[in-house]
Write a structure and sequence with these properties.
The complex is a heterodimer of chains A (294) and B (494).
Chain A: H1 2-9, H2 15-21, H3 23-30, H4 32-49, H5 51-54, H6 86-122, H7 124-139, H8 142-153, H9 157-183, H10 187-194, H11 199-235, H12 247-254, H13 263-290
Helix pairs in contact in A: 3-13, 4-6, 4-13, 6-7, 6-9, 6-11, 6-13, 7-9, 8-9, 9-11, 11-12, 11-13, 12-13
Chain B: H1 2-19, E1 22-27, H2 42-51, E2 56-58, E3 64-66, E4 69-76, E5 79-84, H3 98-109, E6 124-131, E7 134-139, H4 146-150, E8 176-182, E9 186-191, E10 204-209, H5 213-222, E11 227-229, H6 233-240, E12 246-251, E13 254-260, H7 270-279, H8 282-289, E14 294-296, H9 320-329, E15 336-342, H10 345-360, E16 364-370, H11 372-379, E17 386-392, H12 398-406, H13 422-433, H14 437-454, E18 457-469, E19 473-474, E20 477-478, E21 485-486, E22 491-492
Parallel strand pairs in B: 1-10, 15-16, 15-17
Antiparallel strand pairs in B: 2-3, 4-5, 5-7, 6-7, 8-9, 9-10, 11-18, 12-18, 13-17, 13-18, 14-18, 19-22, 20-21
The chains are: A mainly alpha (294), B alpha+beta (494).
């Protein structure tokens, strides 16, 4: 019975809005971990949005006379090697992390969806070529591929975002393709075709909405992965350039002070962990809610 | 059965006993080669300096002394006759004689060798063999700093016939020889039993390759390492307070400088360069950021280098007000500049401090961190603006730094500031050619004075060389830099 509900919920005509009000939303609300994830994500968004109001100091303001101070009432998270306030940098780092989580995922999902739609719909040689291309991308360990892309384009925030986006494309392509292959034989698609719908209409109005559920799960989980990858690239000095606050960069520079000043690593490390955890909880919750069979 | 057990115990103890006479140290990176002529890399030199020897060395007091050279004299201004120490052989048994010295220097000079340090000996035109132990080194033009250049690690005497094999299987006349090189893991040296100066007391030296400085320090504290060099300033105090560790900080041959490309339209105006100099609070960097482990610098070369004009006053001391006024006068408000720096945690940090200090006077600084090869490419490109560099005046003679930085013939590779002043060129040429010390001193003083005022480079500080060791090691000598660790008279007492 529930299968039919889902089939009905994710049926193309209903769209995301109605789906959200339906049984899936009820299941999501009952999943405590998922709700915690959602709350954490919302909190992160708020912190990022109001960073200038929340941060007690300017994130780049140096005070060389107050270097490497442990946490205190004045500096809750302590200060770094330049005497910068770590709390302020962690708060401003939320902006970079959200940006670097969302932008590559958005870019990758758009490109991946297009590839998946086209490959799944036309099959045959188009499918073979596109998917072998995706297999090539998948064949490389993701961080290695990102490193190669940054190596080719040069370090910097923009190129790192491109790199992480490229790495994400095949995942979306494969998911969308599999949904499309199943859906194109469905009666409603056949009906639309019989009524004279062209390829474009079939792809965008009938098949794309069918993939939304799976896409939203993959994207939410992808955000956590993207943030982690970006932090990794920044840690290696290939992402955000100084003096921009970035959690990965803070970890990278802070590790030199590990023996004596652990707080340099503790807070940005905790921020990365919490953020990735939040998006993963949210993603898992979405998956469970949208696909109760899984 | 019992005897077998004894044997087992003995077998287990034996390696421990052997390890008693092994010195353990660490370096941060795998050396690219152990052929001293094929590299300009400090990690290589740290090892090759144990295995090979140069004709001359500079003593900790700054005097030039013979090592493989026993006696020497100038026959005329272009001909230096050198008598070698007798009875020296490479560790493979071949004699280190006049023929070997000639072959080694000519190999370094040979363009086919593609030696990155060829310029160190490029003044040499030929090497003549007089007899078994006497050579005459001929220069095309008088070259006053010749002895100092022959003390450079790239000028080490190698058995030229060994050719490319030296990279992996080094053969020298030095106090130690290579036992085993595990790439990116460790390099083990052992005492050269037949060393002409007497076998060193230390049996083995193990260089472990440990990239992470914090790991190196933890290992030193726990006893896994006996000696470490180049301690980051922020870790030094903790080691200083450790009762089991002896530390020492002393002035080496290094300078950290901010270069300004005077050919770039943004920096061509002297007022802009003066403003940048005025904006930098050197003493704040030294006292706070470097925890006092540097000396304030005005001249481009530290006082350890011969002919450094160490008494010159800073024409542009820290004065942010003056900096802003100069920028306004130059019509350069809202100036945005790019600072190039290569991947090095210390320099990257200094770059960020400069970024903040320049922001205070209204200059927006963008930092571009690249690996060294990409950085070097950038410094020769015309759109270079500011660059941060750490220079070691390895020969300890002013020529090595001043000629490279400020002679127009060195544009753009070493003179990346594109500094071009005919009078300075003339002074540098004169000081290079004239063996008269007083003439050289006066010329270098004039150069440094002119250059300070023109500000194509701003000396930020002279970093102190640091050593931290466990007291088991005594008698070692470190000449100016960690790459010159001399263990010939050192002993280990565990």
């Amino acid at each position: 019975m529930s299968d039919q509900v889902v089939a009905f919920d994710s049926a193309p005509a209903t769209g995301l809005a109605r789906l959200w009000r339906g049984a899936a939303a009820r299941r999501f609300r009952r999943n405590r971990a998922a709700v915690v994830g959602l709350v954490l994500v919302l909190l992160l968004v708020l912190v990022a949005a109001f960073a200038p109001l929340l941060a007690p100091y300017a994130p780049d303001a140096q005070n060389l006379r107050a270097r490497l101070r442990p946490p205190s009432a004045e500096h809750w998270f302590g200060t770094d090697e330049f005497g910068r306030d770590i709390l302020s940098r962690v708060i401003f780092g939320a902006r970079i992390s959200l940006f670097t989580g969302l932008v590559p995922v958005f870019a990758a999902s758009v490109v991946g969806t297009l590839v998946g739609l086209v490959a799944g719909f036309y099959r045959g040689r188009v499918d073979a070529v596109l998917m072998r291309l995706m297999d090539v991308l998948l064949a490389f360990p993701s961080l290695l591929l990102a490193l190669a892309v940054v190596g080719a384009l040069g370090p910097g925030l923009r190129n790192a975002v491109i790199a992480v986006a490229v790495v994400g494309v095949p995942g979306y392509a494969r998911i969308v393709r599999s949904v499309v292959i199943a859906a194109r034989e469905e009666e409603y698609v056949q009906a639309a075709r019989a009524l004279g719908a062209g390829d474009g209409r079939l792809l965008l109005r009938e098949l794309l909405p069918a993939a939304f559920g799976a896409l939203s799960v993959q994207a939410t989980l992808g955000i956590g992965f993207a943030i982690l990858s970006m932090a990794g690239l920044s840690f290696l000095g290939l992402g955000v350039q100084p003096p921009t606050s970035d959690w990965g960069e803070m970890l990278s520079r802070g590790r030199r002070f590990l023996p004596d000043s652990g707080w340099l690593l503790l807070y940005p490390g905790a921020a990365i962990s919490l953020t990735v955890l939040a998006f993963n909880l949210l993603g898992d919750g979405l998956r469970d809610a949208l696909d109760p069979r899984g | 059965m019992k005897r077998l057990a004894y044997l087992l115990v003995l077998a287990l103890l034996l390696p421990l006993a052997a390890a008693q006479d092994q010195l353990n140290t660490a370096i941060g990176s795998n050396p690219p080669t152990l052929d001293p002529q094929k590299t300009f890399n400090g990690f290589s030199f740290a090892i090759t300096n144990q295995i090979y020897e140069t004709l001359f060395v500079v003593t900790p007091e700054g005097e030039i002394e013979g090592l493989l050279a026993d006696e020497w004299e100038y026959l005329d201004e272009n001909r230096l006759q050198v008598r070698l120490v007798e009875g020296v052989a490479f560790s493979d048994g071949t004699p280190l004689n006049a023929e070997a010295v000639r072959a080694s220097l000519l190999r370094l000079l040979d363009p086919a060798t593609a030696a990155p340090g060829r310029f160190v000996v490029s003044a040499i035109q030929d090497v003549e063999v007089v007899d078994e132990t006497t050579v005459v080194i001929v220069t095309a033009a008088p070259f006053a700093p010749l002895l100092a250049h022959l003390a450079h690690p790239v000028a080490a005497i190698v058995p030229a016939a060994a050719g490319d094999a030296l990279a992996r299987n080094p053969v020298g006349s030095g106090p130690f020889e290579l036992v085993e090189w595990q790439q990116s893991n460790q390099i083990l040296l052992r005492a050269n039993d037949d060393y002409w100066g007497g076998r060193p007391a230390i049996d083995e030296v193990l260089y472990r390759i440990v990239p992470e400085v914090s790991t190196q320090i933890v290992e030193l504290r726990s006893g896994g390492l006996d000696i470490l060099f180049n301690i980051p300033p922020d870790n030094y105090a903790a080691l200083q307070n450790d009762a089991n560790i002896e530390t020492e900080a002393y002035l080496g041959w290094g300078s950290v400088l901010l270069g300004l490309n005077t050919a770039n339209p943004k920096l061509a105006d002297l007022q802009v360069r003066q403003a940048i100099a005025h904006a930098i609070d050197k003493s704040l960097i030294i006292d706070e950021f470097l925890s006092g482990l540097a000396e304030p610098g005005v001249a481009p070369i530290p006082p350890t280098v011969r002919f450094a004009a160490s008494d010159l006053a800073d024409p542009y001391p820290y004065d942010p007000e003056a900096a802003r006024a100069l920028l306004a006068a130059a019509g350069a408000e809202g100036l945005a500049l790019t600072l190039d720096v290569y991947q090095n945690p210390d320099l990257e940090a200094v770059a960020q401090v400069l970024q903040f200090m320049l922001a205070e006077v209204g200059i927006d600084l963008n930092i571009r961190v690249q690996e060294f090869a990409a950085y070097s490419e950038q410094t020769v490109s015309d759109d270079l603006e500011l660059y941060l560099t750490s220079w070691g005046t390895v020969t300890l003679d002013a020529d090595y730094a001043l000629y490279a930085f400020f002679h127009s013939s060195e544009i753009p590779e070493n003179n990346s500031s594109r500094y071009q002043v005919a009078a300075v060129d003339a002074l540098l040429d004169e000081a290079r050619a004239n063996p008269d010390e007083a003439v050289r001193e006066a010329a270098y003083r004039d150069v440094q004075e002119v250059v300070l005022n023109d500000a194509p480079m701003i000396t930020l500080y002279y970093p102190l060389s640091t050593v931290a060791k466990r007291p088991v090691l005594t008698g070692e000598v470190v000449r100016f830099s960690w790459i010159n660790l001399d263990l010939r008279d050192a002993t280990l007492s565990r």
